[in-house]
């Protein structure tokens, strides 16, 4: 369960949003809509612990009953996926995945796990490949698997579909939601495109916390 | 082509200048030259150790404080410090470290000194004070480059993604950032090393005296009247070039081996999320020394009587400024103004109409030791009988300034929205008038920056001015270096400070002028 409580962010005298409250249940994908420049990225940066020091934020972040907003990024156990896949270009596909895998999966089991994960997402035999030789859709899949292999307690998606072309987009979207449902972690999807929201999922607009602001 | 005018005459010049080095007896003579071993040692120490220390301190600082608010605050300081020319920095560091310098004065009460201690803290025979100066000055440059690279969103986000996977900053630097950044730092590192190998002005101020570093020796030999000495100079300047190529080759080889080893290993997933203590404030000494050095220049230029153990002068006076020799200032001003304007114009023409594939050739002066180049220029000027003339000096500066104006402008020029040009052409403008009326006015900000950068580079030139000017043209740089041998610190401080002020004013104008010019155009701010 992810819970944002009374979040108010401002920059100097300018308020970005006030008293933002959100609950996301395990396995739920909540979609947060907002035009560009509406403060979506600022919210994500606050959630991940990378808020620009120019902003002032007050509010609490609860995740599985623990307060996380005072922890540094590396201790929050919150994964993030951007519109760029951000695979590490100096590592092979397998190395990228192994980078995320917890350390208790050791030796041969580590290699086996990578092989299996790649097979699961339709990329069998890709472990030694250079990420630069993969298609956009393939890279996006590896990127999601990398985020999930670290076993995060929550996942943030920052317009993750916007760079894919229209055909690929629909397929990839369905594939992502299917995977997320299986992991059972709360997910916050931030986008400006209403079509990105999963069917039947809750959709909210960031404006509702900005209306009282002029 | 204005660009060809700058480059083409250097090529036969290089041949004329370096051809005396063909022949084994020259190399034998160099080998038996009594100053050779110690000069080579001092050069290797200052250039190699200086570059390594510069890289290490820049890297350490980046690892400690990126990403933090401090990292972004540092940017402004670096911009100021980078505009302090090498020679002025060396003079200020001399004022700090010399046996009668400010550091010894600060320590004097502790040890009860009444006369300067018996230190070898500057001009030491091993070249260590020169090493220190290069390490500090070049670490700022490398930090600046790192800042530009880390400013790219793709790089910054990789840090964020790796942190969200549970890794600590130090681990991420090692596993994610360095492997990707190091290849991109290769050329800046080559520039640092090439600079260290062939630096003459700093070496005269801070380096060993007899024998001096190899670069200073080469300069003495090349300007000697006897052909034997000139041949020695040509051979030794080839040695400098060979050193650069050898170190570069070794570094690339080491990199290849390292990459091969890394290829098949899977990361173990070990997380060490605890970050190094923030109290390690490496940035304070590294940046602070720059301000201290400039403050000492100011203090000395205003000092009245100031005897050894005193920390402050007995009185402040404007006397040194009133009696200052302003001739070098005016020479520098017209030379740097002409050189930067010419180079920016040439760069604009090159970027608009020139063959972009050959940009790499224009960058060569940045990563080639400057001595052989300057010798080549001088030889060409001798043939054209333009040595010792204003035109010759100006031309010799162009080759050094051009790569910097190109480097400053190329990014902005490439990212210019070409549809604006298409619209202008569609409205019936010729390409030239579209450039004059649309493209270049819109690029006024990067153009102003390029002018300031070119100006600063020209102000800092030492060797080209001396060679091409035949000693007849004194700029603030040559004057400061010449005065550093004499005993009058006040006169020296004034010239060194003028050398600091000129580029600073240039940068300030470059920041203000476009803003004033477009005060009625919100979109240009």
Written account of the structure:
- The complex is a heterodimer of chains A (214) and B (525).
- Chain A has 214 residues and is of the alpha/beta class.
- Helices cover 31% and strands 25% of the residues of chain A.
- A five-stranded parallel β-sheet of chain A has the order 6-7-8-3-9, with helices on both faces. A four-stranded antiparallel β-sheet of chain A has the order 2-1-4-5, covered by helices on one side.
- In chain A, strand 4 (56-63) and strand 5 (66-67) form a beta hairpin.
- The two termini of chain A are 32 Å apart.
- The model of chain A has no long low-confidence stretch (mean pLDDT 88).
- Chain B is an all-alpha fold.
- Chain B folds into two domains: 1-19 and 319-518, MetI-like fold, CATH 1.10.3720; 33-223 and 282-317, MetI-like fold (Orthogonal Bundle), CATH 1.10.3720.10.
- Helices cover 74% and strands 0% of the residues of chain B.
- Chain B has helices at residues 2-7, 10-18, 24-32, 36-65, 69-82, 86-97, 102-111, 128-150, 153-164, 169-198, 201-206, 214-222, 227-262, 283-302, 319-322, 327-353, 359-367, 370-384, 390-414, 418-426, 431-442, 444-460, 463-469, 476-483, 489-517.
- The two termini of chain B are 33 Å apart.
- The interface between A and B is medium-sized, with 39 and 30 residues.
Instruction: Classify the helix fraction of chain A into a percent range.
Output: 25-40%
Principal-axes geometry of chain A comes out as globular
Low-confidence sequence ranges of chain B: none
Task: Characterize the main sheet of chain B.
Answer: none
Give the count of helical stretches of chain B. Answer: 25
Largest interface: A-B, 39 and 30 residues
Identify the strand order in the major beta sheet of chain A: 6-7-8-3-9
**Class based on secondary structure composition and strand pairing of chain B:** mainly alpha
Task: Give the oligomer, counting copies of the same chain as homo and different chains as hetero.
Answer: heterodimer
CATH-defined superfamily of the largest domain in chain B: MetI-like
Q: What is the top-level CATH class of the largest domain in chain B?
A: Mainly Alpha
Sum up the overall morphology of chain B in one term. Answer: globular
Task: Look at the helices and sheets of chain A and give the structural class.
Answer: alpha/beta
Report the span from N to C terminus of chain B. Answer: 33 Å
CATH topology of the largest domain in chain B: MetI-like fold
Range of strand content of chain A: 15-25%
Would you identify the CATH H-level superfamily of the domain at 2-77 and 152-209 in chain A?
P-loop containing nucleotide triphosphate hydrolases
Q: Give the mean pLDDT of chain B.
A: 89
Number of strands of chain A: 9
